[in-house]
Structure formats: structure tokens, C-alpha cells
Amino acid sequence: MSPSREQELFARHAPAIFEQIIGATPQARHTASPGAQYPKFAHFEVDETGFKCRFYNRPGDKNPSSFCEGNRSRILLQGQHHFDSDGIPLGTTPNHIFNWIVSQNRGAGDLPPDDWIMRRYKAAVHDRTSLAQFIDDHIVEMIAPPAPSVRPAWIEKLLGREDIPNTHVLIRGPQGCGKSTKTMTKIPTIYDNDPGVIFFSSPSIQQAEEKIETFKHVNKDERFVPYLYLSVTALYERFCPSSDRLDHIGILEEGGSSWLHTVFERQRDVYDQMFSYRSRLLDLRGEGKIVILFGTHETMRQHTNDGMTRLFYSPGFSEKWFEKMGMQERDNWRNHLLCQNWIRRVIVDEVTAHDLVSVHPAEIVKWVQCCAAKINHKSTLDIAERYMKFKLYIANHPCKDITWNLFLEVLQCEYAEHDVVEVTDREVPFDDQDGIYAKMVGQNYYVQSRGWWNYFWFVTMLTTEAVPTRIIETIDRESATRESYRTIGSRFTTSVCQIQPEIP
Predict the structure, then answer these.
(1) Closest by alpha carbon to 232, among 200, 277, 199?
(2) pLDDT higher than 50, residue 429
(3) I need a surface site. Which of 31, 127, 350, 362 has the fewest CB within 10 A?
């Protein structure tokens, strides 16, 4: 098989880079013969560790036996040599050098590089068993590699800083290959490499509960305990019988602005159970446990909107929230509570298209935008007053399928004209020429990436499906052209960590 363009780039640039790196090491400076830089790069091969490089030990060496594995930062000296040790530290790895070379030599329109993870994959994976082993061996390196040791400034100048590599990662693999289970098994290592609150997200509460049971089974580190992080609404439904539940809309109809405040006043026993459940999280942390949060995609997404659930789980939240206070005082306290409840890393299992993009019919969006402008929605601070104005407007301007919750959802998207997409016949399945998809041709929809991943330091998405993968790739390409996106770390390492095996 002929080498790829990326391999040719590595072969062309690696000798000079290794010469500069090795020449700067104390061992090489003190022991190498004048005018020569040894060990000297000879050639490389691609194996399960990535780019394994071999080196000559001295002039006249015809058998380059010294080597450095792709994921190692030290040349292991083999055969005859004149060095005082059995190894030469590099301060970086061949795989990192490869990634840097490719990143510095990509032209406009280039395809994503076939980098070291995929090369290891191709070398090591042949069936489901080897795939499972590959994931077990490399999942940590893909999503939470250990922080690099202190390196000389000249290496940082050459290769750049890699203090937070792979912040946003997409891993696609077939069903049953162990993506989520292997990830949970490695959570202690992931945490040790990068301490911080971890949230493991599932599509539903039931699936989150199943993941907790799996985590209990695979986790062997007593420091770590799982906790089901339920939204305030889900907590209420857990502790309040359905026949006694207070409805959000019903409270707005009564002129009330806070559903939770009403629960606090009218159903104190239910509220106390909710607060006790929430307090258990703080108790576990107080006992010195490292709590891994398990919850739903919706709860995880809402965390970025600074909603009531995030406030409720904040260590400083108390009954004081329901007391009367000035607007500025409440805003200050709210910001204080939000800052107490941070999630550093989210692992999103079976991410779907719905989790990635919002889609609404153009007629709905236009109606919502017109309504919001007419009722002065932004300038109206009281929620109950907003709702009553909405009701009055919809009574005079009926709109099919519109609800208060849908109204708020569309407003939150802040759609602009560049978000409009027209459905064409290219999107219609070949066997559905007269069905629901065919009837959508020519209709306009507002489509926008949700962008919640910009608010977490580290995001790992796991999926078996092609559609979420294509959406992420599109978002990633678009973010590369928007400086504002790059500055908050929304780029995804899809090309490095996307596993798409054709395995029976």
C-alpha cells in the first residue's frame, strides 16, 4: 500500500524536527560526536502505538535498532552506542510530532487527516474482539490524555502548547463494542488525569439508572460513587403523586411567577423530600467521595441555560431563595449560586440529531418573533405578566400547535435569517416519493446548532449512528471559519477519534 499524503509529510519533516529536538537534549549534547546529532532519525513504521520511529546510534550504523514508540516520549537505546544511559528523553511523542506536522501543512479544502488514532485502529482492529480491546487500550488517550510534563520552552515554541488536548471528541462505533462501558471503567483514570465534576449523560432517566448499575459493577475504585442527577421537575414527579401535582401553566394562570416557590408553600412535605435528595449529593462530597453524576441529555443541556436545577443543586441554595428581596440582590445571589455548581466534563452516550440541532418550521418562528415584539416580551420582567400577554395575543392571532413552552423554546434559539433552510428533493428517501418527506419539499425550516458543548471544558460524544456524526462534522467545519467559536473551544476532534469499523 502506498503511503498517504500525511505519511509523506511526516517522512519529509520528521528528520529535521527530531534533529532539533535531540540536539537540545543534555545527553545528546554531551555525548554525540562533533558535527553529528545522534541518535539520528532513520525511518518510521505504523503499528498499534502510532508512529514508531527508529534511530541510528552513531555514524556508520547500518541497523537502526533504537526506537521510540508512537505514544512514548523517550528513545529506547538498543545495540551498540556511546551514551551514558539507556534512553534519550524527547519531551514530546512521535504521534504529537505527526499531528503538528499535519496541522502545519494542511491546505484549503484538504480532507481531515488520517491521524495516529485511525492508524492504530487500522493496524490493530480486525473484529469485534480486537475493537473492544482497542477501545479499552486507547479510550483514555483519546478523551483525557495525561497532562504533559514540563517541557523546555523551545519545544513549546516548535510544537505549540497541548495543555488541553482533545477537549471535544466524537467517537462513533458499532452497537455492542463497549464504548460506554469501557469509558465508565476508565473514569477513575480520566478523573486522575483531569480532576473535575463528570456528568455521564443518557437519553432517558431509565437509561441513566441502567448506566449507574453498570458503573457500580465495573468500578473498582471506592473513591467514586454514582449519583442520579435529576432535574427539579423530575424530582417533583418522583416524590409527588400524579394526582397531587401542581402544573406550571396552572400556576401562571393564577398569576404566580415561580412554580418551585408554589411547591415550597403548598406542598412542603414534597419539597422537603426533594431538598433531602439534593442534599445527599453534598453529603457524599462532604464524606470525601468523588461523585459521578448520571442524568439525561435534556438535564445536561439545561445546565448551560443557568436554570432552576443548576441553582437547586448549588451548595449555597436554601429557603432564602423564596424570600422577598430586591432585583439586584437576587441577581447577585443567583450568579453566586451558579458559580458554585460547575460541570467540567460531560460524556454524552448515544447522542442524537435532536441533541445537536434545533429545527422549527419557518411559520412557527415568524409567528413567535412577531408575538414577542408585539407584547414587548424582553422588557416585561414578570413571568406571569409575560404569559398573560402571550395568551391575549394568541387569542387574537391563532397559530396551530403553538404552546407557551414552544414559544419560549423558539425564542431561546434566537434564530436569524441565515438559519433558514429549504427542504429539497435531495433529502427525500428514494422509496418515499409520495410520503411525508416528499410533502416537505419546498418548505422552509429554521435550523441551528444548539451549541451547549461550548459551555463545558470537555465533551465526549458516543454514537452508533451516521446522522449525528455528519451533523458534528458539519458544525466542526463551520466553527473553523468562525473565530468566536474557536475561542471557546467548540471544535471537535472527529477525525482523530471517530471509529467507523466495517466489522461483521
Answers:
(1) 277
(2) no
(3) 127
**In whole angstroms, what is the distance from residue 493 CA to residue 130 CA?**
23
C-alpha span between 339 and 310 (Å, rounded) = 10
Give the strand pairing for 66-68 and 50-56.
Answer: antiparallel
DSSP bridge pairs for 361: 445
Output the CA angle 273-274-277, nearest 5 degrees: 85
The C-alpha atoms of residue 52 and residue 71 are separated, in whole angstroms, by 8
**Which DSSP category does 446 fall into?**
E
Question: Amino acid identity, residue 346?
Answer: V
**Residues in Cβ contact with 492 at an 8 Å cutoff, skipping those fewer than 6 apart:** 168, 169, 170, 453, 461, 472, 473, 475, 476
* Nine-digit cell string for 255: 398569576
Contact 502, 203 (CB under 8 A): no
Calpha distance 86→78 (Å, rounded): 8
Q: Which has the closest alpha carbon to 114: 18, 50, 160?
A: 50
Assigned C-alpha cell, 472: 458534528
Residues linked to residue 254 through DSSP beta bridges, in sequence order: none
Spacing of C-alpha 92 from chain mean position: 25
In angstroms, the CA 334 to CA 407 distance is 25
Is residue 296 within 8 A of residue 209, CB to CB? The reply is no
SS3 13: helix
Residue 24 and residue 101: Cα distance in Å, rounded? 19
Site of grid cell 498517504: 4
- DSSP states of 156-198: HHHH---SS--SEEEEE--TTS-HHHHHHHTHHHHHHHS-S-E
d(CA 471, CA 359): 13
- State pLDDT tens for residues 111-149: 454 456 666 777 777 777 888 888 888 888 788 876 654
Contacts of 377 (CB under 8 A, 6+ apart): 371, 386, 389, 390, 411
pLDDT, tens only, 469-488:
888 878 777 665 543 332 23
DSSP sequence for 353-391:
HHHHEEEEEHHHHHHHHHHHHHTTTTT---HHHHHHHHH
Burial class (CB in 10 A: 0-12, 13-18, 19+), 239: middle
Phi-psi region of 215 (alpha: psi -120 to 50; beta: other; left: phi over 0): alpha
Q: What pTM did the predictor assign?
A: 0.74
Bridge-partner residues for 449, per DSSP?
357
- The CA angle 347-352-353, to the nearest 5 degrees, is 130
Neighbours of 302 (CB within 10 A): 19
Q: Which three cell numbers stand for residue 292?
A: 459521578
CA–CA distance, 502 with 504 (Å, rounded to integer): 7
Q: How far apart are CA 309 and CA 276, in angstroms?
A: 14
**Residue matched to cell numbers 434545533:** 358
Question: Which set of grid coordinates corresponds to residue 207?
Answer: 437509561
Nearest to 446 by CA among 368, 499, 342, 391: 368
